[in-house]
Each structure stands twice: as C-alpha cells, then as structure tokens.
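User: Quick sanity check before I run a bigger batch. Here is a single chain. Can you write out its predicted 3D structure?
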Amino acid sequence: MKARNALRELAEMSASQWGMVTSAQAATRGVTRLDLSRLAESGDLVRLAHGVYKDAGAPSAAYLDVRAAWLSSDPARLASDRLGDGHRGVVVSGQTAAWLHDIGDLRSNRTELTTAVRRQTQRADLHYRRRDLPEEHVTIRDGLPVTTPERTIADLVEDRTDLSIVADALRDASRKYELDLELLADSLAPLAERNGHRKGDGIALLDQLLVIAGIDREAIAKQIASLDGIGVLVARNYLMNPPKIDLAALIDTTALQSAMRAALPQDKQFDALRAALSDTVLTQLPTAKMLEGLATSTWAENMNAALSAQMKAIAWTQLARSAAALDRTWTVPEEAET
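Assistant: Done. Predicted structure follows.
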C-alpha cells in the first residue's frame, strides 16, 4: 500500500487512542507489517513496543509505555471498544496503578496488568496478575481502566511492598481522594495474618498503615464519622487492640464531637452512657457481652450511630470524656467500680 494511503488508514484508528495503533489493528485496514516497518524507517511512525506504533506527528501523551502495553494486551480491538469491558477486561494495577493515581513514590520498570484469565508473557517490561476484580475495584484514569486507590493499596501490600512505602501511598491517596475505608479494610483482610494481625482482621492492618502514615487526626475523624453500619461488633474488635496514636486529641476533633451530638438525642446521651458504664470500671475495656447488649437495647439505633462514628477510634474511657465535653455539668461518679 502506498505510504499516503496507509497513513490515512492508520490516522483514522490512532486518533482515538493517543496517536497509537497496533499492527493487528492496521492489518484490518490492509496495512501490512512491511508497510509499518517502512513508515517507521521514513520517520512517519515511531515504534513504541512490539507491534505498537505511534504517529510521529501526534502529541506525546503521558504514560506512553503504559498505554502501549495495555493496547498490546488485546491488540486487535480499539481502545474505545475495550473501555466498555470494565472490570472484566485488562486493568492497570499494582505499582503502575499507583503511578497513574500519583500516590506514593513508586515507579516500576514494568507495566502491571490484571486480567480475569491467566496470561503469560516473555516480555520483561510486562507483568500479568490474575484476579476476578469486582466492579467497584476498577475506575478510569487518564483514559485507561485502573484499579481504584483502595484496590491498588491492597495490591501493594499483597506484593510485599515495604509497609512504610504503602503508608506513603495511603497518605497521598487520602489527600487526593475520598477513600472508602470500609472497602479498603475488606481488601486488606486476606493479608492481615501474614502482617502480624489476627486472620481476616483487615481493620487492624489498615490501622497500622494509618499510624505509619501519620495521617492528620481531623482527616481520620472525618473518614470515621462518614462510615455507616460499622456497628458494635467492629467497635468491640477494634477496642481489644487500640492503635498507638494520640486518642485523647482525636476524640476532641470537631468531626467526632459533631457525630455524637447528632446521633444521640440530648435526653438520651448521658442516661445511656451512665447505664452502660455503671457496672464497669472506667479504665477497663468493654466486654463482648456488654457491647452486644448495647446493640439490642431500646436505644440501640441511636447508640449504634454514635458507636460507628466514635468507637472505632477511641477506647471506652474516651467515650466518657466525649460525653463530658458535650455537657460540662455531668461528671462520672467517683464511686463507679465493679
């Protein structure tokens, strides 16, 4: 095919995929590999990777090597058609996803892709991971299907990346995105045991990363206050292993104070807490029986709302302090002992 005709055919395809085209796509328009080689030799095309070319006159887009690797993973189909595959298609993941999200100081010398079926490649610059990704674990970033920040952070932990590096990525992600901490904890759950926590305790692993990251207390409080449905059982689990952070300062944040004030009607706040605390020493962590009793009490609906906002990040004694901060006229009786 004449060079002019070949370039016209290629331009129609490359215009919608960052100025790039694969040899398989070119073949559907009658442009042979020999035609592509000649166009590369003449300077009209730039060879980016095996079977992937870029129009030399097209603007240089960011992440060229990632885009080229993704195109080569399903070379016969156009990018516009493949984006509809969503979580069922080939998804950028791992350190490459972290780079696209601009979280952490991570840049691998290979492109990492996740697929639902097992794939192998001899290319040193490309790595495939097999996983069935849920729809909520995939987003679009710079025109590419990419794992969400939550899934990306979990993948970094799975790849045994140093936790301090993962914590840096988590801190960056918390500043750039509104993270779903519940989803992140669920994704971390299978990795908890090998990182020194109880089996399936993704919340504890997440807490560890938050502490390492040193995330701003007010930011943590706002995230906690936004969670729904955590409930008393999660509070019990968390309180058995409270994080080593300045909880006294955390409880005084505006977000947690507002959450409790909104969750408990004024006439219920202190009666409820007084009843719950009357049979226990204030410096003692709550028992499983006591917390489960709270979940079934007559004021459970209001109390659960407060617990989901408050008790994931505070010990039992700080909950009493929070009540006192709302009404300075109420103090815990000195004789309250078991």
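The CA atoms of residues 95 and 106 lie 6 Å apart.

User: Great, the batch can go ahead then.
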